[in-house]
Structures are given as structure tokens and as C-alpha cells.
Automatic annotation (TrEMBL):
This is 1,3-beta-glucanosyltransferase. Belongs to the glycosyl hydrolase 72 family. Pfam families: Glyco_hydro_72. InterPro entries: GH, Glucanosyltransferase. It comes from Corynascus novoguineensis. GO terms for biological process: fungal-type cell wall (1->3)-beta-D-glucan biosynthetic process; fungal-type cell wall organization. Splits internally a 1,3-beta-glucan molecule and transfers the newly generated reducing end (the donor) to the non-reducing end of another 1,3-beta-glucan molecule (the acceptor) forming a 1,3-beta linkage, resulting in the elongation of 1,3-beta-glucan chains in the cell wall. The keyword Transport does not apply. Residues 419-459 are annotated as: Disordered. Residues 430-445 have a biased composition (Low complexity). It is found in: Cell membrane.
Length: 483
């Protein structure tokens, strides 16, 4: 019903929409309020990368019933952003994106996939930098650029993770970022930021950061400069502190940044269930001057045991203790204040000029001469992907969750549904308590079972998925180049 009142308010917008965000200097800004935006995010890839399969016509944003279930649960948690790692640009995402949008959530998308040819490789990156690969990344841009809640694109995730990849990959990664930015500039109606998501391997982290945030000519509009920089960081485990988790080094290392910085993954599970004591620090005064929040890894429980919610094949689900623990930490925060911060009026965000001096590790690449776009790529940038998959918000008529969801204690959560927010509203803790709605319907908890028909090819929820890369405690790294 709420939908109908908002229907056609602006011609094309069906559901109330979040306000598209902008990057201004080192912050994400909501242009309507002028406030900074702190990412309160969760990594969202049900089925894991092993469950991603280009043939089955599905990806994490293709099944509206599943998205409804998960958007409702994420609303209870209070998150405002999901990060999705692998999408198929050619499947329809309209319903899922409209659901997350109405639930007040932005989406950060990785443009790559674990399939061969769908990402820049850590090893011999020149062999994976070709037009068909770029076409795929541009197709992801096409598929998501028209949604108001598309927050950013990751041009790569942990492609640089050791000395060898640090020697070879940076010019190629920067070239992919450039190509994507050129594509966005030419074909999107707003400047959706593009940047890199790094492994928190401390000895090369700041070289990666500097390599991508510097400007070739010293100006902000350098098309190969990252628009943001993110890191997957697992250095805070259990009860820790700003200093013990070496977050202090991160803050001092990124101080004075010219681009937004955030955790594209966090949530060490050396101590399990996790207690997420880092949340108070990430959104506290020691961090927020430099950081713009972070993304908890990860929504779905998989073999690697990082899940907030455990899924069953029939669509039913159960909250993990981590879910309620994270919720508890979020609810201690004052999000009105956190999301109400103004950027400093005088912000000094000039990027450094690219130079060998910025790179401190011996073998890390310090040559800023980038490869030119591979044969055929410039034509795709100029003319656009053909055929271009286009996305748009659509009307959602029923916000009820169709699957049974059990709480940590085994009791069923009744009347679970997404609570659509009003225009421009962003989700925060408390917008959805998960208990009964005014509609008084009990249909929301009808058991699932409708989701199994198209499942033959899908990896089960607990499909073996080796973590893309988790710098376990010590910051050592398990790399998965394909991710
Ligand atoms: C480019 O991407 C589109 C959308 O996925 C696809 O239909 C088309 O075949 C691709 N073209 C090339 C040359 O790879
Ligand atoms: C930098 O890279 C370019 C392109 O690969 C190459 O031509 C040039 O010689 C390199 N410069 C140095 C100083 O190695």
C-alpha cells in the first residue's frame, strides 16, 4: 500500500528510494542532507562464490523471495549497505534491488566473478586484461548504474596479496579502474565511484593504497585514480582494542586520505561466536574522522563459519548467535549522531602526485605508466556494451517473508516482513524490530519449500567455499586469485 502512495511520484520511481550518495573528497556524502555517510554493511553472497554459476540464471540478487527474507533480517540488524561479490549482469535484478532499496540499503558491487576470464588475475595479469573481460565488468555497470542505491563498484578484490602480485598487478589494476571510470563517465547518469578492495596485508597495504589514490598529474579528476579505497581486515579478534588490533596504525596510515576509506570486510572469527566489540570503535571518534564504516563478513553461514544466518535449501533460515551479538553492538550506537556528521568545511583532500617515492616496499611496482586499453576495449567504452542489460526499480506489492525464520533459541520469528522506508530514508537499527506488523497477518511465517524447483545446479548453502581471503589474526593471507 505504501508503494501505491509513492507510485509515479517522479514518473519513474516506483518504490520510495534512498538518496544516491556522492563521493566528496575523502567522504561519502548524502547530497540532500550534506551529511557524511557511514557504511554499516554486511557481505551478502548466499551460496558463496562456489554457488555462483553463469548458466543457472541466478545470482544473489535474482530471487525476490530470498531477497525479501534477507532484507527483512538485515533491516532488523540495522544495516544500510550490502556488498555483493558475484553477479551475473544478464539476469534480472529489479525486484531484489527494489526490495533492498525500499529497505533503505545501498549495494556495493564487485564487477568480477570467480569464473575464468571474469577477473584480473594475480599471476600474469596481462594475460587476463582483454576486451571480453572488460566487457563483462562494463555489463555489471550497465546492469546497476540506473538504481539509486548502487553505492560503488569494486574494480578488484585482493588481486594484490603478496610481493609477486605487488610487482605485477598494480598498473593493470589501475588500468581496469580507469576503464571502468571512463565507462561510468560516458554511460551513467551520475558519477558512481569505482575503487579497489585490498587484502589487509600490512606490509603492502599502504603501497597499494598510494598506488591507487595518487594522481598522475596531481589533479582530482585523474581517470585512473581510485575513487575510494577499501580493505578486508581481520586484525580485531574477540575482546581487543584500537591499539591491540592495530587499528591505530590504519588510522595514522590513512590520515589525510584523498578518498573514502572503509572496511570492505571485517569480523575475525578466532573467537566464535563473535562478539563484534570492534563495532563501537569503528563508528567511534577514533576512527570516523578517517574511516567511513565497514562491512561485516558475512551474511550466510558457510563452512568457513563467518555467518550471521544459517540457510536451508527450502528457504527457511535460522539466526546464528553472531547475528544477535552484532545487533547488540549496533544498538549501543547512536546512529542519528553517527550519520549526522558534517564534513569539515575546509577539507584538504588533494591527492599526492604519483611518484616512485610513494612506494616503500622494494618489489612493489612503482611505475605509473599504465597499459593502454586492450584491442577492442575502447570501442566498447565509446559505444557501450551491446546488448546492455538495464535495471530499473519496480513495484513490489507484498513485503511479507515467505519462509520460516527461527531465532537463535529455535523459536519462530512471526510476521517477518520488510518495512519499506519513506523516500530518502536510510536503514538504521530499530526500523524493523522483527515482531508483528500492523497488518496483523500471520502469513509471513508460512513455511517455505517453494524455492527448490530450480535448485539442481545450485551449490547448497553449505557448499564448500574457501574464503576469498581472510587475513587470519596474524594478517597472513589465504589468497584466492579468482575472487
Ligand atoms: C558484452 O556483454 C554483454 C552483456 O553481458 C553480452 O551480451 C555480450 O555478448 C558481450 N560482448 C562481448 C564482445 O563479449
Ligand atoms: C614503465 O612501464 C612502461 C610500460 O610497461 C615501460 O615502457 C617503461 O620502461 C617502464 N619504466 C621503467 C622506469 O621501468
Amino acid at each position: 500500500m505504501l508503494i501505491h502512495s509513492a507510485l509515479l511520484a517522479l514518473g519513474a520511481t516506483l518504490a520510495a528510494a534512498v538518496q544516491p550518495l556522492e563521493v566528496q573528497g575523502e567522504y561519502f556524502i548524502n547530497p540532500k542532507t550534506g551529511n557524511r555517510f557511514q557504511i554499516v554493511g554486511v557481505a551478502y553472497q548466499p551460496g558463496g562464490s562456489a554457488g555462483y554459476n553463469e548458466e543457472n540464471g541466478r545470482d544473489p540478487l535474482s530471487d525476490a523471495d530470498i531477497c525479501m527474507r534477507d532484507a527483512a533480517l538485515l533491516q532488523i540488524l540495522g544495516v544500510n549497505t550490502i556488498r555483493v561479490y558475484n553477479v551475473n549482469p544478464d539476469v534480472n535484478h529489479d525486484e531484489c534491488v527494489s526490495i533492498f532499496n525500499a529497505a533503505g540499503m545501498y549495494i556495493i558491487l564487485d564487477v568480477n566473478s570467480p569464473l575464468v576470464g571474469d577477473s584480473l588475475t594475480s599471476f600474469n595479469p596481462w594475460e587476463s586484461y582483454y576486451a571480453a573481460y572488460l566487457n563483462r565488468t562494463f555489463a555489471v555497470v550497465e546492469a546497476f548504474k540506473d538504481y539509486p542505491n548502487t553505492l560503488a563498484f569494486f574494480s578488484g578484490n585482493e588481486v594484490i596479496n603478496d610481493e609477486q602480485s605487488g610487482a605485477d598487478v598494480p598498473p593493470y589494476m589501475r588500468a581496469v579502474t580507469r576503464d571502468l571510470k571512463n565507462y561510468v563517465k560516458k554511460h551513467a547518469s551520475r558519477p558512481i565511484p569505482v575503487g579497489y578492495s585490498a587484502a589487509d596485508v600490512r606490509d603492502i597495504l599502504f603501497d597499494s593504497y598510494n598506488y591507487f589514490q595518487c594522481s598522475l598529474e596531481g589533479d582530482k579528476d585523474d581517470m585512473s585514480k581510485g575513487d575510494l579505497f577499501a580493505l578486508n581486515s581481520y586484525s580485531w579478534c574477540g575482546e581487543s582494542s584500537f591499539e591491540e588490533a592495530s587499528y591505530d596504525d590504519l588510522v595514522s596510515g590513512f590520515e589525510g586520505t584523498s578518498v573514502p576509506i572503509f572496511f570492505s570486510e571485517f569480523g575475525c572469527n578466532d573467537v566464535s561466536p563473535r562478539i563484534f566489540t570492534e563495532v563501537g570503535t569503528i563508528y567511534g571518534s577514533q576512527m570516523t574522522g578517517v574511516f567511513s564504516g565497514g562491512v561485516v563478513y558475512e551474511y550466510t553461514q558457510e563452512k568457513n563459519n563467518y555467518g550471521l544466518v544459517s540457510m536451508n535449501e527450502d528457504g527457511s533460515a535460522k539466526l546464528m548467535p553472531d547475528f544477535r551479538n552484532l545487533e547488540k553492538q549496533y544498538s549501543k550506537l547512536d546512529f542519528a549522531t553517527i550519520q549526522g556528521q558534517k564534513p569539515p568545511s575546509e577539507s584538504n583532500t588533494k591527492p599526492p602526485v604519483c611518484s616512485t617515492k610513494l612506494i616503500t616496499t622494494d618489489n612493489f611496482n612503482n611505475n605509473f605508466t599504465l597499459p593502454v586499453p586492450p584491442p577492442g576495449a575502447q570501442k566498447i567504452i565509446d559505444d557501450g556494451v551491446k546488448p546492455a542489460p538495464k535495471g530499473k526499480l519496480v513495484e513490489i506489492s507484498d513485503w511479507k517473508v515467505k519462509f520460516t525464520v527461527k531465532d537463535t533459541d529455535g523459536s519462530t520469528i512471526t510476521n517477518l516482513e520488510v518495512k519499506p522506508l519513506t523516500d530518502d530514508e536510510i536503514n538504521s537499527p530499530g526500523s524493523n524490530t522483527g515482531s508483528g506488523s500492523s497488518s496483523g497477518s500471520t502469513d509471513g511465517t508460512t513455511s517455505g519449500g517453494t524455492d527448490s524447483g530450480d535448485d539442481e545446479n545450485a551449490a547448497p548453502g553449505l557448499a564448500a567455499r574457501i574464503l576469498p581471503a581472510v587475513a587470519m589474526g596474524s594478517l597472513a593471507l589465504l589468497a584466492n586469485v579468482a575472487f
